[in-house]
Amino acid sequence: MHEDDLKNQLTIARNEINNLRQQVRNLQHVQRKDIETINRLLQDFRCEGCANINAKGKDKPESLILQNASNDTNVNGCEDVANFKPIGIIRSAFPEKRAVPRQSSVGSRLRSLIQLNDGVFTNPEHSLEGLTDFSHMWLIYHFHRNNAHPKAKVAPPRLGGERIGVFSTRSPHRPCPIGLSLVEIEKIDGATISFFGTDMVDGTPVLDIKPYIPYYDAPVLSDDSGRSAAMPNENSADFYGSRQEPDGEESDLELYGAAGYTASNMHVEPTPSAPPLPSAVRVPDWVVAGHRLTVCFNEHAEAQLLELQVHKQCIVEILEADPRSVYLRTKYGSQIFTFQLSEVTVTCKFDDKAGTVTVVQVRRNENIQVTALEGEPRNS
Question: Whole-angstrom Cα distance, residue 201 to residue 99?
């Protein structure tokens, strides 16, 4: 029995050594990423005098230029260059790309701000009048931190390394690095919008803001889909009476409403005077087959949450969707993972076999300039 005990202890020690080796490799990877970030910041750093000089040249920071590899004109005679001037900037709780939610619904409890600049409008607050009448809005923004060369095929996290066409994914690594998020409006104060639904890094340039209108933006679903159809019905008369398209420019949605199509009679054949009905919405299985991790907190982390007054659910929503890249998940497996959330750094341990992640530490950042945006819970 004594020999068996020694063998068991030796096995346990070997397993612990392997775990430590994995953690060291992970920390080395994190260190390399930090070094790359520091080098990028140093390369992009300009003193105030240099910034003023660059502002007069072609490298204006307030301008965004999207172009193809060639600067020649295309077959249609149009130049392959589009110039955009950001209307504002997003202030979020994520100073780095690490652990940023992949969709705005994942960060539904995280508050962020949009600060409009006065470079487009003299009084930017005037452009927001009427937006408070809407509950949600679309944000169109620039993936300004993605400098990698775009590829025709990418590997979404849910496919576990399998590659698929970039235009069939939400990958931020695109030929034209433009993001689109549906967020919930909390309040508008002057030229600043507070919203819930954060999936952007801090400092993201905003290109446009559009109100979300379900009558136009929500697709039609057939009866056999098991979900309600987002179509105009008998209760939408007030909406159409208050907001009509100019004569001759009625949308297909209004024609469906005028023709009497509702969720209950979607099987009716279209008449020659009405456009054909849209087909049912469908998505690939890998999109809907999401797997949620179980998030736990040890006693030490629970005490730190109370001390630092960090909302627990914000961390849960980030981690249960597994923010790790495919590379980290497949290369290192179960590992120590850290990320910054506003003014704190969260450290956790993944257990891929058990499908769990345990938060082991929540500490305040030291010597790091982070925009102070609290991850507060939503108001009920």
Answer: 10
pLDDT in tens, 321-376: 888 887 787 777 777 888 988 889 999 999 888 889 999 999 998 754 443 344 44
Q: Is the dihedral of CA 240, 241, 245, 249 positive or negative?
A: positive
| 86 three-state secondary structure | coil
What token pair was written down for 87? 């209307």
In this structure, what token pair is assigned to residue 345? 């750094």
**Cα–Cα distance measured from residue 95 to residue 88, given in angstroms and rounded to the nearest whole number:** 17
User: And the tokens for 370?
Assistant: 């982070």
Predicted TM-score (pTM) of the model is 0.61
**β-strands 81-84, 88-91 pairing:** unpaired
CB-based burial label for 74 (10 Å; 0-12, 13-18, 19+): exposed
Question: Could you write out the DSSP letters of every residue in 43-79?
Answer: HH---HHHHHHHHTSS--TT-EEEE-S--SB-TTS-B
